[in-house]
Specification:
Layout lengths: L6 E8 L4 E7 L5 E7 L3 E4 L11 E11 L2 E8 L4 E6 L1 E3 L7
Antiparallel strand pairs: 1-2, 2-3, 3-8, 4-7, 5-6, 6-7
Length: 97
């Protein structure tokens, strides 16, 4: 999925509903969102191993990890990772897979 250089703006979790929204902008400052429903796991690193950056390096997934759940991983240009396991993902229509 081509999301290279998109900038991560926010991560919102509605815990009681198991919903997660990741807010990004592209090079033209157009906002896009990735939505996860039925979230069961969320992992976030923010150690800046490669230096500070809010830009994405690579997006992987969603890929099925077990019965009924998929995983999406966002790798940051800082060397950090954001990983979500959920029942479903809604991706922006203009993202090439």
């Amino acid at each position: 999925m081509n999301m290279h250089d998109r900038v991560l703006l926010k991560i919102e979790i509605e815990w009681s509903k198991g919903e997660l929204v990741i807010g990004l902008v592209d090079a033209g400052s157009t906002p896009v969102e990735i939505k996860a429903s039925g979230m069961r796991a969320f992992h976030l690193e923010r150690g800046h191993a490669w230096g500070e950056s809010s830009s994405l390096y690579e997006a992987i997934g969603p890929v099925e990890v077990d019965a009924g759940f998929s995983r999406m991983s966002l790798m940051m240009q800082s060397g950090d990772a954001l990983i979500v396991d959920a029942k479903s993902f809604l991706l922006p229509a203009n993202i090439v897979r």
